[in-house]
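Q: May I have one protein plus its fold?
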Amino acid sequence: MAWIEDHLLLLILVVLAIIVFVLLFKLALRAALIFGVIAIIAIVIFGVSPDKIMNIGKQGVNSASTAYKKTIEPVIKKEMVDAKHVEKKDGSFVIQSKSVKITGKDGDENAKVVYKGKTYDVDMNVVKPLREQIDTTKQ
C-alpha cells in the first residue's frame, strides 16, 4: 500500500497519458479511414484519377507555403540578420534566431518552420534563399 501511495500521482499521469494516446490514435485512424473511403468513392464512382487526388494534397502544402510567404517570411527576413545557421555532416541544417527556428535536410521537399510555438511545413525552395544569405557554421 505504501508504494501505491508514494506513486499515486505517477500512476494517474500514466493512465491519463495512455487514455489520451488511445483517443488520439482512434481519431487519427478514423480520419485516415474517412479520407480513404472518400478517395475510393471519388475514384470509383466519380472517375477522379488518383493523380488528381494527389494534386489536391499537394495544393494543401502549396497553400501553406503561400501563407508562409505572406505572413511569416517578412518577419524571418528581419530576424535573419542575427540568425545562426548550422549545417551538419548528414545534410541537415538548423537556422535559429530569437523567435524563428527553421530545420530541414538537403534533398527533402519541405522544411519545418517554428514561429511563436506553431510549426509550419514549407517548401524547401522557399528556405534556400534564406540559407544562402546567412553565414554558415559546419558541424
Summary: The first strand starts at residue 84 and ends at 87.
